[in-house]
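STRUCTURE:
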């Protein structure tokens, strides 16, 4: 039986329910992006060490998402295939989000005899747990779309996910600066992470309650039987079958690889760029405690500025997420995606060149939001046209390798380049964080060129 005859068209309410959990997921992820830099730097992380800590994301993404995706394809439960992973990942990640900013206090519980780097090690462990659990939820989340949404609505569904990503990130990033501006209340890092933990769990719970998967205890689910070959396919077989879907799949993956080098050059380093380049705060890890204290107000102001920039970046994503889906439906995913990527290239160059101007950098982040809305939706929409029923989790998990893998490049080589690009100002040190934008712009331009060569499969 054709799967589309079994799936009812989604209404606006259905799309809202589907997207809300990803709003919570992105809320948590955004807090991790914005605040992990200052938290770990205050515990002694240099740019190189910070990059190594960020390796948690790509390694867990490359390992966890393909495995969880394949496992969710084979999961049989009365709650469906995907929902157990969505909620389980959210709950465990929320606990780690609450503990992460308290890493230094947890280290102090072991007494004064522990090494000074213990707090940083504990923070790194919590980051790995957070990233792993976000990936546990994220892979099956992308896979649930072809499970429950008719094929002709996949682009629109992914655009609603982009909308949720934008809105969740806006709320997460803007809350602390808004409270500071409106009520003169500065939220602590701990309070912001607790807020993210609550948002992640509650939003994901809502989606799991309102989006109904068919029970996979019934082996007739989507025409599968106990003997369905998909249930016994190994990971490497899945990889082989993935690349045999179409020659265009390889092009989509290559495009995604370079896209995410560019994306992570901004996401990993923007807060540190705001602190050390835009606001000129020196490297705090090289300063005595009393001197560090003098720069903490400036660090807080720069962190609030970074949050505002991320809020603007994601607000643009939120505003144009659904229109991008509509435009893609009219003109094709490829054309819309190329224009969006080029807009981000221009934005990166603007931020790198005018790196001391707060207004210009903020405008650059706003322009980048156009590309972000497209990155969050259209590559997945292009890929979904090649997915065979019953393999959604495996395909999305493997596809995530080309999102997570580029981060290894950014966390190691780009972090090393910044670490070696030292600015001396007397006894104070700083780094050329703007280099990450030049590298990112070059990779996004390559991604746009690859996209031009993709032949889209017609629905």
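SEQUENCE:
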């Amino acid at each position: 039986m054709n799967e589309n005859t079994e799936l009812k068209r989604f209404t606006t309410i259905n799309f809202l329910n589907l997207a809300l959990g990803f709003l919570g997921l992105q809320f948590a992820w955004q807090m991790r992006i914005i605040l992990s830099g200052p938290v770990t730097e205050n515990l002694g992380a240099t740019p190189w060490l910070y990059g190594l800590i960020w390796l948690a994301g790509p390694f867990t993404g490359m390992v966890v998402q393909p495995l969880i995706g394949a496992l969710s394809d084979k999961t049989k439960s009365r709650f469906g295939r995907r929902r157990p992973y969505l909620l389980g990942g959210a709950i465990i990640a929320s606990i780690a989000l609450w503990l992460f900013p308290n890493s230094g206090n947890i280290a102090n519980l072991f007494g004064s005899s522990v090494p000074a780097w213990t707090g940083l090690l504990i923070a790194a462990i919590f980051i790995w747990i957070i990233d792993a659990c976000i990936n546990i939820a994220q892979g099956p989340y992308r896979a649930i779309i072809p499970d429950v949404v008719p094929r002709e609505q996949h682009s629109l569904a992914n655009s609603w996910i982009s909308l949720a990503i934008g809105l969740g990130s806006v709320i997460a990033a803007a809350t602390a600066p808004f409270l500071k501006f409106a009520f003169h209340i500065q939220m602590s890092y701990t309070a912001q992470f607790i807020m993210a933990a609550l948002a992640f769990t509650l939003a994901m719970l809502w989606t799991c309650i309102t989006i109904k998967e068919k029970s996979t205890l019934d082996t007739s689910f989507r025409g599968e039987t106990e003997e369905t070959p998909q249930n016994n396919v190994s990971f490497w077989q899945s990889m082989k079958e993935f690349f045999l879907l179409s020659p265009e799949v390889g092009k989509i993956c290559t495009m995604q690889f370079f896209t995410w080098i560019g994306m992570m050059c901004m996401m990993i380093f923007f807060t540190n760029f705001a602190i050390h380049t835009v606001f000129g705060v020196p490297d705090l890890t090289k300063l005595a405690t009393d001197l560090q204290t003098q720069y903490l107000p400036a660090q807080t102001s720069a962190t609030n500025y970074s949050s505002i920039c991320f809020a603007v970046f994601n607000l643009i994503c939120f505003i144009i997420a659904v229109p991008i889906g509509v435009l893609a439906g009219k003109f094709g995913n490829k054309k819309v995606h190329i224009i969006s990527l080029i807009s981000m290239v221009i934005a990166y160059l603007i931020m790198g060149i005018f790196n001391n101007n707060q207004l210009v950098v903020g405008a650059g982040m706003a322009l980048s939001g156009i590309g972000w809305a497209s990155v969050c939706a259209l590559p997945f929409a292009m890929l979904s046209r090649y997915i065979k029923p019953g393999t959604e989790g495996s395909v999305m998990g493997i596809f995530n390798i080309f999102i997570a893998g580029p981060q290894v490049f950014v966390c190691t080589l780009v972090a090393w380049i910044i670490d070696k690009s030292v600015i001396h100002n007397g006894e104070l040190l700083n780094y050329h964080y703007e280099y990450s934008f030049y590298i990112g712009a070059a990779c996004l331009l390559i991604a746009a060129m690859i996209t031009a060569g993709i032949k889209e499969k017609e629905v």
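REMARK: The CA atoms of residues 170 and 315 lie 6 Å apart.
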